Amino acid sequence: TGLTPGVSYQYRVRAYNATGSSNSSSTISTITICAAPVALNASSFTPTSFTANWQATVGAVDYRLDVSSDPLFAAGTFVSGYEGRTVSGTSQNVPDLVPGTVYYYRVRAVNASGTSNNSNTVSSTNIPPPPLVSSATDITAEGFSVNWATTSGAEGYFLDVSTNNFVTFVSVFNNFNVTGNSYPVSGLASGTTYQYRMRASNSSGTSLNSNTVNVITLPADPVATSANTFTTTGFTANWSAVVGASGYLLDVSSDDFSTFATGFNALQVTGTSALVTGLSEGTSYQYRVRASNESGNSGYSNTSTALTVSAP
After folding, report:
1. pLDDT mean over 89-107
2. What is the model's pLDDT at position 115?
3. What percent of the chain is helix, strand and coil (3-state, nearest 5)?
4. Which terminus of the chain, N or C, has fewer Cβ atoms within 10 Å?
5. CA of 45: how far to CAs of 48, 63, 94, 126, 153, in Å?
6. Is 228 helix (H, G, I), strand (E, B) or coil?
7. Residue range 154-199, pLDDT digits in tens
8. Rounded to whole angstroms, how far apart are CA atoms 133 and 294?
């Protein structure tokens, strides 16, 4: 006893009695079983693999590597092909893993005399898969909420927001660190199309980019300008163009929008003017407009007043 692990020793014996000792026997060589290796942190992470590492052990010919999804290495939890897998050197790439999953590994040193005890256990989490980004919600003229599905193994996410497919980025939203599954993006321009994407991250690294989602902010409120082209039964309503508007909604009323002129309650129109007809002569009317696009409608413009021409 009291020998060094993994070291070759030789032994011989002599017989003796009262008359003396025999010659030495033949010499036998043997090697002690190796000390348990020291497992090191994993490296070279990808979403589906990592490299297990350990320190070299004196006297080891090769090693046996276990990789499992269970820290206790229970039966049935080993990664296929990695229950006592024979490996050499001090590292081994472990492929075909599930992204974002926590794995555990341990090693044993082997020589001609047997196998060492298990090393310490090292945990390793693969790089998570890219998150699935969904449509924006809570869209306003100045921002929107980004939404995504949480990803297995992710500890956080990185958000990119752009107006030119990520050639450049909006304000701080380049690799912007967020958590949870939603984040409000603010300080944007009205009626402007934005793109956003995300990446999941953990201590092992960062995933590839998610899918890209396009969203347009609501248009700004239009400015209603003075009417013209007055007749006894109508006039032309006018307003300023709004960036990002695909159309406008026109209201016309004679009682401050308690009721509406026939056909002129959120009437969809295009351009920056509309002919209003079918009105009463010599009557004061009010009109207002909202800009609209695929994300929704702006607020109301100011109210402009128009007086139809009196009959002779």
Report:
1. 95
2. 97
3. 0, 45, 55
4. N
5. 8, 22, 10, 6, 13
6. strand
7. 999 999 999 999 999 999 999 999 999 999 999 999 999 999 999 9
8. 19
Structure tokens at 122: 């090292």
Taking the C-alpha atoms of residue 54 and residue 207, their distance in angstroms, rounded to an integer, is 26
Radius of gyration of the chain (CA): 39
Instruction: Give the residues across from 297 on adjacent strands.
Output: 292
What is the distance of C-alpha 217 from the center of its chain? 22
Q: What tokens appear for 111 in the block?
A: 């020589």
Q: Which two tokens stand for residue 310?
A: 């009196």
What confidence score (pLDDT) does residue 79 get?
97
- The CA angle 289-293-299, to the nearest 5 degrees, is 40
Query: Residue ranges of the alpha helices (H) in the chain?
Result: none
Q: What is the pTM of this model?
A: 0.80
Q: Are strands 182-185 and 224-228 parallel, antiparallel or unpaired?
A: unpaired
